[in-house]
Amino acid sequence: MPLTRRPFTADRLEPLLDVCARRPASPFSPDLRRRLLTRLVSGPDGVIELVDGDETVALAVAVDAVDSVADCAVLDMLAGRADAAPILDAAERFVARGPRRGLEVPLSSHTAHWRPVLDARGYRLAYTSYEMETPPQPAPPMPPLPGPTWRWITAEARHVEAYHRVVARAMGPVPGSFRGSLDDLRRRIAEGASEDLLLCGETIAGFANVGAPLPVAPDLGHVHQIGRDPDFRGRGLGPILLARALHRLAALGATRFALDVTASNTAALELYVRHGFAVVEQVPVYRRLLG
After folding, report:
1. Which of 66, 172, 174, 215 has its CA 20 to 30 A from that of 232?
2. Model pTM above 0.70
3. Strand 72-80 vs strand 102-106: parallel, antiparallel, or unpaired?
4. In angstroms, rounded to a whole number, what is the distance separating the alpha carbons of residues 77 and 25?
5. Mind listing the pLDDT tens digit for each residue in 49-90?
């Protein structure tokens, strides 16, 4: 019996989050999964749930309510496993109606078998992302800040607009980076997201945000994003930002650390290798322009 698609409605949110927790297809935190299903897609058709009878077999999202270098949506598998065609059909229809000019599809271990279908549909390799992890290790010593006017703070509502601008400036040129909307960041901070800002005087120079270890791997903490404003290039902020993130994760119980980085970002790769990270999976990302 072929799989069918179940439309996404608000009452499906909690059951789908439960499926993600039981049968995850990605290492996303519960908070990020909730945002992906509700705030990082521009409409309910961006949530793709395939069912066999009443059982969820696969769940994916076509994330288009974010900015990226290539102005493309990205297809993220959240739970289960399925053949490519029904998920791509739904995602391509959704993205073609929206603000993005194309769709990017990462080929993880859950979607590696999709490559022949992607080739046949005209997708081409855009870049490769590395998933990196450390063995069990303590967080590194905190490097000294560049000067007496520098300090760390936790982002608050009054910082949101400046913080959002700095993220755009820092991550804008990086292939594979995605930046949520100002409204999404404002809601995250209002909901209590703990995100660290590095200030020089009253100017945001850099940022670090992390995700608490998940129940399936309580010793593994994820660095979500670190970056610095281009105006502060050459100040040696990379080791400071990374150490801050790893200390935050260690305080949450992590003894191993994980992050993603684009293969072409050689400076970041060198930094991470120096701090004990090694590539555990290469994820090729395929792209097709639509419309």
Report:
1. 66
2. yes
3. parallel
4. 6
5. 999 999 999 999 999 998 888 899 999 999 999 999 999 999
